[in-house]
Amino acid sequence: MIKITFPDGTKKEYKKGISSLEIAEEISPKLAKEVYAASVNGEIRDLSRPIDTDANLKLHKWDDEEARHAFWHSSAHLMAEALEAIYPGIKFGIGPAIENGFYYDVDPGDGRAITEADLPAIENKMKEFAAQNQSFIRKDVSKKEAMDLFTSKGDEYKTELISELEDGTISLYTSGNFVDLCRGPHLPSTEPIKAIKLTSVAGAYWRGDEKRRMLTRIYGITYPKQKMLDEYLVFLEEAKRRDHRRIGKELELFTFSPKVGMGLPLWLPKGSDVRQHLIDFLTKILKKRGYKIVTTPHIGNVNLYKVSGHFEKYGASSFQPMSTPQEGEQFMLKPMNCPHHCEIYNATPHSYKELPLRMAEFGTVYRYEQSGELHGLTRVRSFTQDDAHHFCRPDQLREEFKSIIDLILYIFKILNFNDFTAQISLRDPDNKEKYIGTDENWERAEQDIISAAGDKNLKTTVVPGEAAFYGPKLDFMVRDAIGRKWQLGTIQVDYNLPERFDLTYNGSDNQKHRPVMIHRTVFGSMERFVAVLIENTAGKLPLWLAPEKAVILPISDKFNDYALKILEILNNSDICTLIDDRSEKIGKKIRDNELKRIPYLLIVGEKEAENGSVSVRKQGEGDKGSMKIEEFVNFINSEIKKEIEI
RNA sequence: GCCGAUGUAGCUCAGUUGGCCAGAGCAGCUGAUUUGUAAUCUGCAGGUCGGGGGUUCGAAUCCCUUCAUCGGCUCCA
After folding, report:
1. Residue A242 CA to B8 C1' — how many Å?
2. Measured in angstroms, what separates residue A36's CA from nucleotide B4's C1'?
């Protein structure tokens, strides 16, 4: 007998070799139908694997990521089986579960292509196999055995993977006629896979290496119930409606023109207004926090970037330098503000007493992003960073860093960005030549970040290899409508540029000392930030950011004069207001202006004209009753104040 | 940059296997209506069918090329 301990602490004895599935069945047959994977002593396992020793057992239902993972991983195998049936000789790369569903990278063979038009046929085949209730059978094999199998199949991708595995750790899973190299775990059988949707095909380099062959990646998602799939597809549709590219066009916030150039955003008046509200807001906060605002040109001498290291690192993949006609001097479009800021620092001597020095600029930079990478406002070739550099003494670094974490969290809170993640990006220890600076500086900087984030109790994930070339960083990431993660705020510790630019200050010992530099943004870029803001709010921007706060809707033409009077009062009170004096019915005017996401609709008719009031309708919420005009002005101002003062 | 897909009016989309002057709804402009909390009615106008080249008696439709967009991959100072 073995002793099984459940998550709630209860213990129960079972006969040796019982499987997790059998245990679940014994507890209740209903439970057995709902579990998809099990953790045995913290290790995720197939439900069908026997347990031979005393163990802690956790059964995973759909709500656990482990369960979905097993479900989708099994679905990937199911898809592979269908592919092999339809395309004999097809070769397989990797086919993992992902956050929402799964994919499989395949090589259909020369002259054969799989396109979206082929997906329904593959789906149908999958449904056919799933209905056969095929078991997933695990088999541990030797390296040679695995090698022989896939060599005989002529699958060079699998054999490459096997060659890197250690003997004794290799397992195969068989379902139907399909055998795959796989660590597992899997569902006991294909039976629970009821609803299947293949969502897209895309190219993906083998092993993520652009020098290697491009495989065809097929994405899909499956569920145990059709209703769950339907709900997911509805969610995707809704997400599309929140897409900032769509809303930006609808609400006339920004546009792009092929004549101007791809990836070069054109801010329309309303979008420009939103952007300016954000800039004004942040500027006010920065001044309170002791930042000095500076302004620098959009180009800089190529030597500037040779000093900073940007030219060596990015010169070849940048917009190429332009030269002056007479002297042939070379200038680059500014890809970053930091070199300029270093030279501002160098313009005057500094004493240890005046540090930290906080220098901020809404600086527009230009980067050559690959054409395939451009994406609405989130990835562009010209963007304005809310950039700042803190120059401080080494002993001030930690406090300075923490104060920036506070600033970012404060701004995110005001904007209701609660769903962000914090990521510590370190140097890739195996690829040190990608970075500038000494090991000592890097280790110091990485420790600085880790301990500052620790002091702030910030929940972080640590990702090696994601650092900037001059230093490690703490990134704040937010998701867009379809779940893609974008970096907004970032805080970067840098010991290297101060050396390259020979930045110094006089210490209390009257000696020259080297300051440390912190690079930071809160919004990241105005472009990306507005994009994420639009998607988070579905275009219903908070009152303080809305380019138009209210629109007056006269019941009929008879009240246009009164409406114009109010319009003047509101606009004179700095409340940007419109009037909709079309001779339409009030229902139509309400509908149209609701769709424009204007925060307040002010309906005026006979009653209101008589007593100097407006009938207030809040966007998305409906009728709020009537208010005197002065009352409404005060109301709006206090609402705005509430929004931006936590 | 790479793989795949898409491109018809300001927007959302129709346009069968190539065949009469390329259609609809919304938006716009006319005119009527004067309206009380999410769509009043009439009429009009609007398109080199992304650009260029080709095949054909004939191309929105087929082929080539180019530009742009979309989904991924790679990249992201």
Report:
1. 26
2. 34
Radius of gyration of chain A (CA): 30
pLDDT at A180: 96
Distance A143 CA to B48 C1' (A): 65
Q: CA(A614)–C1'(B9) in Å? A: 39
Q: Assign domain A66-239 to a CATH class.
A: alpha beta
Q: What is the pLDDT of residues A80-105, one digit of tens each?
A: 999 999 999 999 999 999 999 999 99
CATH superfamily placement of domain A263-537: Bira Bifunctional Protein; Domain 2 (3.30.930.10)
Q: Given a cut of 90, is residue A275 above it in pLDDT?
A: yes
Q: Catalytic residue positions of A? A: 338, 367, 385, 387, 389, 473, 519
Please give the CATH topology (third level) of the domain spanning A550-644. Answer: Rossmann fold (3.40.50)
Q: Indicate the SS3 state at residue A209.
A: coil
Best CA proximity match to A278, nearest among A544, A493, A549, A68: A544
CATH architecture of A2-61: Roll (3.10)
Give the nucleotide with minimal C1' distance to the Cα of A469: B77
- Reduce the DSSP state of residue A28 to 3 states and report it: coil
Strand intervals (E) in A316-459: 322-323, 330-333, 357-366, 382-392, 420-426
Tell me which protein residue sits closest to nucleotide B5, measuring alpha carbon to C1': A116
Is this complex scored with an ipTM above 0.85? yes
Would you give the DSSP letter of residue A288? Answer: H
- In this structure, which long-range contacts are made by residues A250-259, counting pairs with CB atoms below 8 Å and at least 24 apart in sequence? A250/A539, A251/A539, A251/A596, A251/A597, A253/A530, A253/A534, A253/A547, A254/A377, A254/A530
Q: Which strand B bases fall within 7 angstroms of a protein CB?
A: 1-5, 11-12, 27, 32-40, 67-77
N-terminal to C-terminal alpha carbon distance within chain A: 60
* Contact (CB, 8 A) for A221 and A194: no
